């Protein structure tokens, strides 16, 4: 029997395997679920898994292999922005579809890519607002790994904080290399910065492997959440699974989903997921939810279009709305990003998050940040007649700010 | 018996001829089967295979450059990826400038990543990269000058063996960290990507890909002939002598450091050319090319193919990368590291001189007389330390 | 004094406080052959190390070419280029080069890197190598690798390489160690011949028969300085030499 | 005691020994003579196990040791003074000597006085690194190291190479002394003919990997022997 | 403000002997507020409880802090969850009859701070001096003017000198920045605060109002200058300490490599994976302890150290026997083989334990920190330094003083000759590689305390390890020690100026330049045998 192939492009080895393997399993799980429901368009789905091995050029090679050789109808994949940047030209050239499930720096909207993770305004800004309002934070440490996502996010945050009247000397920005493991000095600096009499918080865009030693050092140096809370954008349940969270209780994270979300949908999802993965301790996290949303949107769009033909599915995706796991519906917007609620969680001693705040409604992604000089006039709308990812509202032209 | 007029070794040995023959055949066949056959024909070579092969060939050239200094001079560079990456960046910068106003922000001059970091003007080191000849020159000069400066210091100070290896590793690691920084002006971790065209040709067109493939093959062929020419010259013999007994070479009156420096710079430039051909074919260059693990992998390719055989280095690069491509797909994908790791262990144990090296040994043994004089090579080349 | 080819003046070398050479002074005249004997550890090899630039003296001068060149300021390569060739005590040849290539590499001629890329062997060079092969009797081993030779064969190859270098001054450290008596005699003959052709030679050896065969001035080192100097008979009659070196 | 019976040895495809036989007995010195490259060192290597033989047998006290690891042969009492000394360069002189303790009973783990009385220079250099010694000092150290093993068979490959005349005499005396104790078999490779002639109880002469002459010490006076060794 | 009220009332209570009058009504209201499970209500209830002086209040607040305060039923009521989950009445502490389904009252950072303040206020009059001390510090931190009269009242009564000085400091902290304080009073406060000499004091001194008299300003400026000088010194010392602690991590990571690479000459690319295996051994040990005997948890690392040594040592022996032993004399081929082995080990761990981080907890004796002057020292780091030095000394002793150490060195210098000396080279080789691997495994136990326990753990140390061994001088254990420590300290001294990224780049460049000066590392082996 003929099948519809679904490509899975997540690193199963190398540095990113730690995060991406789960997403591969999520896609396989969704495929199995969908097949149990009878597949799509009367055909069974078949997942094609490849391992781009945390190697960026290999991502491009594997993307090409999936599309050209395996003839997959859609690809779920990538985590780091550079891997996405690496495969972008391939998806454009071969006109296929990529679902990208991770929070990222924005500044991008492509016809062939659907972004189901958060743009900066769907994560960072609500988190800062929460800290200002609820913790009375006046002084800010923006600590990040030295690459494009943290840099962009911090740029946006810096502009935002200043617009809220925060003085320049009350913002400390610090970057560290990937995999940084000796945090003694920086944590001490944070402590020092925080002892100036004003309530201080840390906004962490520290990514990947560096987080565990960072949190361990926080715990060691006794920085408690009641003194200097840390809010992170890249630390979820999966990352916490590797840390003893008792000293970290009260530190925060901002996501669009937490495993502790108290909804029947989520409960059901967790149950099935654990059954699928055969591990009743296995956690869930935000990029998983984003993957699930993306998958369901694709299925819906394919059914709507009646074909897997990208040229038909891409327009069909806009406006598709599926239930998310936090009790609402997420909708694919014309900018190829989705609407999301923002949740703020405090770390609990069991490695889960206690949701302390949830935005009342869903937030629409600002793929082009209004806080950045080069992009504040840009919008993306992939519907006719605009059909443009970087439309300049000032000049009224597609193609950025130029001439 | 009374004259030393033994013929100098031929520029092209049998295996060299076979190697160039295979390359030549590929240059003719692959484009023909890609462009001239129908996509559904059994003979059709899909474009992605062309790009893949092109990529392997640039790796082969890179491996060749490493074999020149490792196999023949005993310099184990654990940072050769840096030269490859520099060549790649030089080409990448040219390709970025070619994008012109087609970037997402539509800035006619500044690449996207600069716009979005709020840069107001092009940094000086980006000047000139809009011109291909300049970029092509930089493909050679950037790695060449780095190698010259680094080698000049290191070889004059007589840094050898693992000490040299480790500082080459430190060099590439420092460059990795530096290029990672957005402030460096090379696009940070995202690197340079989303290229549009090269010399006015659409970089994604089948024709362009085929031409890039052919260029890679030609570069590899020429690189091979150049390396052969070097190693069989008197110069090359001094290189091997340096590998075996550097002090003795100095006492014989040769300036060992100059010989090493020439070889190192030539090798770095070859690596730079490989990088420059690699970037348009894979479509991205980012700092991970500087990662020490990448450089170690190059060494592994050379060792698998056979150190000090040139052909082996190229073969090893293609084989290992093909294995990688093959193992990372399909059912084996989650276990491919077992396969690859196992392959490396097996090669060291069962093919101690690499594939080609072991083949040469076997052939030599078959030809060898069983008498003592005129016997076969028995002493393995001494390791570099 | 300015006539001397090689002139060591009060050279002292210490290793972690141990004096291997102690105010050693002597001269070698152009065209002279000099034999050096002395107990194990007297500093003979160290002396050669100093002359060839391998070891820097703590103190003292080493002049070459009648005092025009201070060797202590030069490195090994420069010293070799001046025309000082050396055979090492432990034979060192290029192990993965053939015997023939070992000689080719040693052969006097172009030493710079770039020109050597395009260098071709001349007929004269070829003849020269053939002649050396005759002398060292390794012709039938010419295509074997240096590393596959026996100990004695390597000794001969190293002598051949020294000949190929055609230096003004040859420093020969224990050339006949591991040779048969007949070969020893031959080597002495060979060195005399070389010396007769105008080369200066300094030989270190423990084999008294060989030293006698050389028939040249002998110098005995002890604890880093000259203990006795003269003909072999004079030196070997010296009580101290007998006591520390020859034995009774 | 030690019997080498008709052995062949190859380096790769090149044959270095062809049907070589030799015996060594306690209290006797067996000399191996021959020109450069005839296979003397190869024969010694075969005896101590550093090179595998392709054919034939090596027996020690009746036990077949042909396939035995070098360390086991050493533990049975075969000590080796190799050509080229092979000192452990980074170990001190004392430590170099102590490496010889491996086959020795715990109670005997001291350096025999013989070593220092034969080579007094070693005593004064105990803390220096072996690799820093002069060539001749290293040779003395190599012999001392072998004696530390209290061997039953002592295999000496050109032990006088690079040694000053007075010590050569001492080594000669030492070998005579060891022979006189009567419990040690000595195999001696020597180019220095007079030295060999004075010591040999038995000898063999090799050419191109094969034994061409053999006999007892007295037969060494035969001019034929000298001819064989001459070039 | 809340705190000030609490303190005020507590002080008033103790002073006016109002303790007997239970304000049951207030407490009842507070309990009702708690039962709504809203942060604002909880916070309000806490301030009421702090004021109430009800003996039950302390129990309720601490139950909330420990997550044992639960609510449920209709209308919702709160209970305290006792031992074994029985629900107790919060006031009477008697078991309730018809226990409804309950959930814990939620707590966030704001509530946590309120809890701290409330229990601080409640314990300012606590009979336990330690509690009073904490309370005084909490009040000081609040810097709330309203607390001043209460503070004065308690201060007059306090007899414990420690608590008294803490109270005095708290008072000074409040006075110093407050308007309308007499000049003398403020200068006295500046003195008290200035004597603290720490970062907090600096912040307080800087808050002297701009309109204060010149004398006050001078006093403050002098105190600030003094503290800054003092802090600069301590800061340098702190950086050196960080450097030593980073150095000890580098030492641990590198020391096994100093054997397999430094002594044996194997370019051991699988070294990092041995460290990783050690870390996973720790994880497994802790898992077993957690499931079988949680009481032993504090011993888990002590138990893991020998196990990790044996386990990774055994893996090392297996690798040596099956692969490495065929490669002696071919140093460069070992790179290829061990690279392959490292890939296999990584993937094996990934397959067995999954790709994600595993949790390794810290025993209590490794948690927390103490201060020497202005130097803050964390126990975890301290123990790691101690452990690294112990391992170093032990290894040095094995190599220098034991028979096997001598044999190891002999074998690696000349394998063939060592065999002819009767040394069982196979055995020695296996032991040496096993020793190096085992030590790497022990390092993994320590590193599991500060880094990710993931399949990638090893990769992150391999470059640094080689750098340290080579920088120190291959084959010299002292070199590895000094190399690790100097790289650690240099890194930490550079970091404050250049930042973490540029600092690291600068360090790499320094190493490259240093090697030009000393081409064989810091502790180069010298002598003829090396130069040959
Ligand atoms: N690098 C060094 N470190 C310490 N001692 C050294 C070093 N090099 C040489 N020596 C010592 O210096 C002395 C002189 O050594 P040298 O090799 O010059 O002697 P030699 O005269 O050549 O002896 P031989 O006849 O045995 O070859 C010896 O005692 C030796 O141990
Ligand atoms: N490792 C080796 N590989 C190949 N051939 C070798 C090797 N070692 C020795 N041979 C060859 O084997 C033959 C015998 O060598 P061997 O060392 O036994 O000679 P020898 O009699 O000890 O000579 P010498 O007196 O010069 O020490 C020689 O022709 C030599 O070239
Ligand atoms: N997009 C990220 N998180 O790299
Ligand atoms: Mg000497
Ligand atoms: Mg021999």
UniProtKB/TrEMBL annotation, chain B:
Pfam families: BPD_transp_2. Keywords: Cell membrane, Membrane, Transmembrane, Transmembrane helix. It is a multi-pass membrane protein. The chain crosses the membrane at residues 12-33, 45-63, 69-91, 131-155, 162-180, 210-231, 258-278, 298-320, 332-351. Its main location: membrane. It is found in: Cell membrane. PANTHER family: HIGH-AFFINITY BRANCHED-CHAIN AMINO ACID TRANSPORT SYSTEM PERMEASE, SLR1201 PROTEIN. This is Urea ABC transporter permease subunit UrtC. It comes from Ancylobacter moscoviensis. The lineage of its organism: Bacteria, Pseudomonadati, Pseudomonadota, Alphaproteobacteria, Hyphomicrobiales. The gene is urtC.
From TrEMBL, chain C:
SUPFAM superfamilies: P-loop containing nucleoside triphosphate hydrolases (SSF52540). Keywords: ATP-binding, Nucleotide-binding, Transport. Transmembrane segments: none annotated. This is Urea ABC transporter ATP-binding protein UrtD. It comes from the Bacteria. CDD domains: ABC_Mj1267_LivG_branched (cd03219). GO terms for molecular function: ATP binding. Residues 6-248 form the ABC transporter domain. The lineage of its organism: Bacteria, Pseudomonadati, Pseudomonadota, Alphaproteobacteria, Hyphomicrobiales. It holds the Pfam family ABC_tran. It comes from Ancylobacter moscoviensis. The keyword Nucleus does not apply.
Automatic annotation (TrEMBL), chain D:
The keyword Calcium does not apply. InterPro entries: AAA+_ATPase, ABC_transporter-like_ATP-bd, ABC_transptr_urea_ATP-bd_UrtE, BCAA_Transport_ATP-bd_LivF, P-loop_NTPase. Residues 2-231 form the ABC transporter domain. Keywords: Amino-acid transport, ATP-binding, Nucleotide-binding, Transport. CDD domains: ABC_TM1139_LivF_branched. It comes from the Bacteria. Gene3D superfamilies: P-loop containing nucleotide triphosphate hydrolases. One of its GO terms (molecular function) is ATP binding. Pfam families: ABC_tran. Belongs to the ABC transporter superfamily. PANTHER family: HIGH-AFFINITY BRANCHED-CHAIN AMINO ACID TRANSPORT ATP-BINDING PROTEIN, HIGH-AFFINITY BRANCHED-CHAIN AMINO ACID TRANSPORT ATP-BINDING PROTEIN LIVF. NCBIfam families: urea_trans_UrtE (TIGR03410). This is Urea ABC transporter ATP-binding subunit UrtE.
UniProtKB/TrEMBL annotation, chain E:
Residues 1-19 form the signal peptide. It comes from the Bacteria. Pfam families: BPD_transp_2 (PF02653). The keyword NAD does not apply. InterPro entries: ABC_transp_permease, ABC_UrtB_bac, ARM-type_fold, BCAA_transport_permease. It is a multi-pass membrane protein. Belongs to the binding-protein-dependent transport system permease family. LivHM subfamily. This is Urea ABC transporter permease subunit UrtB. It comes from Ancylobacter moscoviensis. The gene is urtB.
């Amino acid at each position: 029997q003929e099948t519809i192939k679904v490509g899975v492009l997540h690193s199963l080895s190398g540095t990113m395997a730690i995060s991406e393997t789960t997403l591969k399993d999520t896609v396989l799980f969704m495929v199995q679920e969908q097949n149990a429901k009878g597949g799509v368009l009367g055909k069974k789905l078949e997942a094609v898994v490849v391992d781009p091995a945390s190697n960026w050029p290999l991502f491009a090679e594997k993307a090409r292999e999936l599309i050209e050789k395996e003839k997959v109808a859609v690809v779920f994949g990538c985590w780091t922005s550079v891997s996405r940047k690496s495969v972008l030209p391939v998806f454009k050239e071969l006109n296929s579809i990529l679902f990208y499930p991770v929070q990222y720096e924005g500044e991008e909207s492509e016809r062939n890519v659907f972004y189901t993770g958060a743009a900066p305004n769907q994560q960072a800004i609500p988190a800062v607002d929460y800290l200002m309002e609820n913790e009375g934070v006046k002084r800010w440490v923006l600590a990040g790994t030295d690459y494009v996502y943290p840099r962009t996010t911090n740029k946006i945050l810096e502009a935002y904080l200043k617009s809220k009247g925060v003085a320049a000397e009350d913002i400390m920005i610090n970057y560290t290399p990937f995999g940084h493991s000796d945090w003694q000095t920086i944590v001490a600096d944070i402590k020092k910065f925080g002892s100036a009499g004003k309530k201080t918080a840390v906004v962490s865009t520290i990514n990947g492997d560096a987080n565990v030693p960072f949190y361990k050092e926080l715990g060691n140096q006794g920085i408690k959440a009641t003194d200097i809370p840390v809010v992170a954008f890249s630390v979820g349940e999966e990352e916490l699974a590797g840390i003893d969270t008792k000293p970290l209780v009260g530190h925060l994270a901002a996501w669009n989903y937490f495993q502790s979300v108290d909804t029947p949908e989520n409960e059901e999802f967790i149950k099935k997921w654990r059954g699928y993965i055969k591990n009743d301790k296995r956690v869930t996290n935000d990029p998983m939810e984003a993957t699930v949303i993306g998958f369901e949107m694709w299925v819906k769009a394919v059914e709507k279009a009646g074909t897997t033909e990208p040229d038909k599915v891409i327009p069909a995706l806009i406006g598709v709305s599926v239930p998310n796991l936090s009790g609402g519906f997420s909708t694919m917007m014309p900018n190829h990003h989705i609407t999301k609620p923002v949740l703020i969680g405090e770390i609990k001693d069991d490695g889960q998050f206690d949701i302390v705040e949830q935005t009342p409604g869903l937030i629409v992604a600002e793929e082009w940040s209004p806080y950045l000089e080069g992009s504040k006039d840009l919008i993306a709308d992939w519907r006719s007649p605009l059909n443009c990812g970087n439309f300049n509202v000032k000049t009224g032209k597609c193609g950025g700010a130029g001439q | 018996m009374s004259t030393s007029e033994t013929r100098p070794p031929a520029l092209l040995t049998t295996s060299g001829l076979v190697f160039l023959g295979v390359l030549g055949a590929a240059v003719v066949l692959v484009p023909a089967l890609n462009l001239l056959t129908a996509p559904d024909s059994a003979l059709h070579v899909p474009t992605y295979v062309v790009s893949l092969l092109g990529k392997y060939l640039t790796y082969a050239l890179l491996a060749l450059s490493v074999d020149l200094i490792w196999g023949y001079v005993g310099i184990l560079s654990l940072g050769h990826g840096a030269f490859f990456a520099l060549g790649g960046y030089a080409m990448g910068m040219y390709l970025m400038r070619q994008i012109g106003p087609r970037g997402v922000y539509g800035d006619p001059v500044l690449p996207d990543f600069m716009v979005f970091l709020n840069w107001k003007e092009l940094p000086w080191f980006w000047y000139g990269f809009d011109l291909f000849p300049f970029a092509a020159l930089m493909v050679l000069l950037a790695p060449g000058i780095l190698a010259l400066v680094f080698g000049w210091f290191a070889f004059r100070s007589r840094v050898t063996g693992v000490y040299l290896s480790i500082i080459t590793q430190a060099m590439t690691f420092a460059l990795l960290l530096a290029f990672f920084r957005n402030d460096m002006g090379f696009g940070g971790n995202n690197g340079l990507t989303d290229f549009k065209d090269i010399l006015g040709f659409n970089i994604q067109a089948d024709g362009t890909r085929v031409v890039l493939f052919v260029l890679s093959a030609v570069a590899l062929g020429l690189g091979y002939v150049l390396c052969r020419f070097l190693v069989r010259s008197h110069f090359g013999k001094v290189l091997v002598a340096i590998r075996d007994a550097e002090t003795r070479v100095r006492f014989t009156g040769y300036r060992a450091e100059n010989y090493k420096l020439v070889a190192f710079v030539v090798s770095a430039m070859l690596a730079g050319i490989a990088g420059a051909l690699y970037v348009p074919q894979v479509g991205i260059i980012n700092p991970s090319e500087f990662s020490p693990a990448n450089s170690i992998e190059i060494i592994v390719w050379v060792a698998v193919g056979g150190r000090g055989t040139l052909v082996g280095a190229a073969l090893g690069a293609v084989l290992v990368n093909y294995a990688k491509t093959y193992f990372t797909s399909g059912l084996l994908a989650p276990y491919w590291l077992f396969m690859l790791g196992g392959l490396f262990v097996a090669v060291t144990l069962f093919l101690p001189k690499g594939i080609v090296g072991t083949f040469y040994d076997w052939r030599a043994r078959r030809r060898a007389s069983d008498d003592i004089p005129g016997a076969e090579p028995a002493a393995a080349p001494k390791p570099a330390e | 004094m300015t006539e001397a080819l090689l002139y060591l003046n009060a050279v002292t070398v210490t290793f972690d406080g141990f004096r291997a050479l102690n105010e050693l002074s002597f001269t070698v005249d152009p065209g002279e052959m000099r034999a050096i004997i002395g107990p194990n550890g007297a500093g003979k090899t160290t002396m050669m190390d100093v002359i060839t630039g391998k070891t820097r003296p703590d103190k003292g001068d080493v002049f070459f070419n009648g005092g025009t060149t201070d060797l202590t300021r030069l490195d090994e390569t420069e010293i070799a280029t001046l025309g000082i060739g050396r055979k090492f005590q432990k034979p060192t040849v290029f192990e993965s080069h053939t015997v023939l290539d070992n000689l080719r590499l040693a052969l006097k001629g172009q030493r710079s890197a770039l020109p050597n890329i395009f260098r071709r062997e001349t007929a004269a060079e070829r003849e020269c190598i053939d002649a050396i092969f005759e002398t060292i009797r390794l012709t039938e081993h010419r295509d074997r690798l240096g590393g596959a030779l026996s100990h004695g064969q390597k000794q001969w190859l190293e002598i051949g390489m020294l000949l190929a270098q055609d230096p003004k001054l040859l420093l020969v450290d224990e050339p006949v160690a591991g040779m048969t008596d007949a070969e020893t005699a031959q080597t002495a003959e060979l060195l005399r011949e070389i010396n007769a052709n105008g080369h200066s030679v300094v030989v270190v050896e423990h084999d008294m028969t060989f030293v006698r065969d050389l028939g040249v001035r002998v110098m005995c080192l002890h604890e880093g300085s000259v203990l006795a100097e003269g003909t072999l008979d004079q030196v070997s009659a010296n009580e101290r030499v007998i006591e520390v070196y020859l034995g009774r | 005691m030690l019997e080498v019976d008709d052995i062949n040895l190859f380096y790769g495809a090149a044959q270095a020994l062809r049907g070589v036989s030799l015996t060594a007995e306690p209290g006797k010195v067996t000399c191996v003579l021959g020109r450069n490259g005839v296979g003397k060192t190869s024969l010694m290597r075969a005896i101590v196990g550093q090179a595998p033989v392709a054919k034939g047998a090596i027996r020690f006290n009746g036990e077949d040791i042909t396939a035995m690891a070098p360390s086991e042969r050493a533990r049975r009492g075969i000590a080796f003074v190799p050509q080229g000394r092979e000192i452990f360069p980074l170990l001190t002189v004392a430590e170099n000597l102590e490496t010889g303790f491996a086959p020795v009973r715990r109670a005997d783990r001291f350096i025999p006085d013989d070593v220092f009385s034969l080579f007094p220079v070693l005593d004064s250099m105990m803390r220096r690194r072996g690799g820093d010694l002069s060539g001749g000092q290293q040779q003395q150290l190599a012999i001392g190291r072998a004696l530390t093993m209290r061997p039953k068979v002592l295999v000496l490959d050109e032990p006088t190479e690079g040694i000053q005349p007075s010590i050569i005499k001492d080594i000669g005396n030492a070998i005579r002394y060891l022979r006189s104790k009567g419990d040690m078999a000595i195999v001696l490779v020597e180019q220095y003919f007079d030295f060999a002639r004075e010591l040999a109880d038995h000898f063999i002469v090799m050419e191109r990997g094969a034994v061409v002459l053999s006999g007892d010490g007295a037969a060494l006076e035969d001019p034929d022997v000298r001819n064989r060794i001459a070039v | 403000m809340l705190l000030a009220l609490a303190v005020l009332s507590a002080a008033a209570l103790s002073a006016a002997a109002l303790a007997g009058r239970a304000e049951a009504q207030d407490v009842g209201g507070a309990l009702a507020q708690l039962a709504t499970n809203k942060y604002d209500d909880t916070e309000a209830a806490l301030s009421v409880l702090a004021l109430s002086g009800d003996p039950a209040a302390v129990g309720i607040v601490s139950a909330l802090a420990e997550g044992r305060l639960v609510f449920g039923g209709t209308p919702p009521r709160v209970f305290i969850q006792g031992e074994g989950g029985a629900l107790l009445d919060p006031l009477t502490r008697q078991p309730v009859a018809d226990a409804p389904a309950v959930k814990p009252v939620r707590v966030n950072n704001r509530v946590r701070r309120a809890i701290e303040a409330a229990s601080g206020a409640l314990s300012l009059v606590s009979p336990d001096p330690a509690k009073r001390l904490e309370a005084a510090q909490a009040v000081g931190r609040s810097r709330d003017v309203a607390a001043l009269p209460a503070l004065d009242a308690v201060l007059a009564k306090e007899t414990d000198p420690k608590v008294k000085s803490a109270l005095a400091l708290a008072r000074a902290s409040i006075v110093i920045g407050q308007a309308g304080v007499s000049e003398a009073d403020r200068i006295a406060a500046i003195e008290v605060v200035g004597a603290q000499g720490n970062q907090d004091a600096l912040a307080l001194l800087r808050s002297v109002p701009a309109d204060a008299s010149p004398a006050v300003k001078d006093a403050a400026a002098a105190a600030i200058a003094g503290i800054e000088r003092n802090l600069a010194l301590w800061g340098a010392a702190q950086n050196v300490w960080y450097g030593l602690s980073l150095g000890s991590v580098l030492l641990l990571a590198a020391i096994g490599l100093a054997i397999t690479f430094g002594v044996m000459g194997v370019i051991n690319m699988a070294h990092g994976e041995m460290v990783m295996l050690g870390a996973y051994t720790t994880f497994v040990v802790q898992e077993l302890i957690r499931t079988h005997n949680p009481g032993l948890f504090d011993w888990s690392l002590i138990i893991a150290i020998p196990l990790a040594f044996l386990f990774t040592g055994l893996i090392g022996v297996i690798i040596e026997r099956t692969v490495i032993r065929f490669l002696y004399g071919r140093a460069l081929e070992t790179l290829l083989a061990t690279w392959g082995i490292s890939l296999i080990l990584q993937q094996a761990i990934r397959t067995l334990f999954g790709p994600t981080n595993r949790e390794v907890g810290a025993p209590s004796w490794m948690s927390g920190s103490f201060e020497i002057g202005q130097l803050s020292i964390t126990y975890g780091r301290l123990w790691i330094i101690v452990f690294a030095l112990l391992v170093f000394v032990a290894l040095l002793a094995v190599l220098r003083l034991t028979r096997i150490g001598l044999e190891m060195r002999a074998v690696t210098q000349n394998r063939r000759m060592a065999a002819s000396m009767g040394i069982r080279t196979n055995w020695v080789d296996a032991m040496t590689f096993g020793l190096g691997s085992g030590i790497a495994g022990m390092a993994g136990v320590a590193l599991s305390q500060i880094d990710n326990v993931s399949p990638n753990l090893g990769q992150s140390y391999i470059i640094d390890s080689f750098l340290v061994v080579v920088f120190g001088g291959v084959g010299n254990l002292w070199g590895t020690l000094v190399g690790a420590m100097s790289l650690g300290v240099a890194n930490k001294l550079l970091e404050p100026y250049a930042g973490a990224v540029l600092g690291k780049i600068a360090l790499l460049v320094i190493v490259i330049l240093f090697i030009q000066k000393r081409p064989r590392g810091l502790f180069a082996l010298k002598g003829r045998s090396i130069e040959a």
